[in-house]
Design a protein that fits this description.
CATH architecture: 2-Layer Sandwich
Helix content: 55-70%
Shape: globular
Strand content: 15-25%
Largest sheet: 3 strands, mixed
Length: about 120
């Protein structure tokens, strides 16, 4: 599959899953989850869906468990709403880059305050 087409498919899957998480999925374990990136294999048979969760470790665990249990439902939703020849198998993966960036920002702020006093 061409690179630009694969990028469009990744974006489309990201948008659909984001919409689904906001409006359709009613699992109480699911916290505030956002889809940060989707990486689909070239043959469209599998996709890694990277998600970020607002909250601590317990919220991460609960939200990831909810996503794993809803994987079949999400895939079925994609099959119905996207015009793809093949609907990929989904693998949800944590993306802690936002959390990491916030920690670095706090450390830098602490250094700046320490040098200013």
């Amino acid at each position: 599959m061409q690179g630009k087409r694969l990028d469009r498919v990744n974006q489309l899957i990201k948008e659909e899953i984001s919409l689904l998480l906001q409006r359709e999925l009613k699992d109480p374990r699911l916290g505030f989850v956002s889809v940060t990136e989707v990486e689909t294999s070239k043959d469209l048979r599998s996709a890694k869906v990277f998600v970020s969760v607002l909250g601590g470790d317990e919220q991460w665990k609960a939200s990831m468990a909810a996503l794993v249990s809803a994987r079949g439902f999400v895939r079925h939703w994609l099959r119905q709403h996207l015009d793809l020849r093949v609907t990929p198998d989904l693998e949800f993966r944590p993306d802690r880059s936002m959390e990491h960036a916030a920690r670095i920002q706090a450390l830098l702020k602490g250094l700046d305050q320490a040098s200013g006093s």
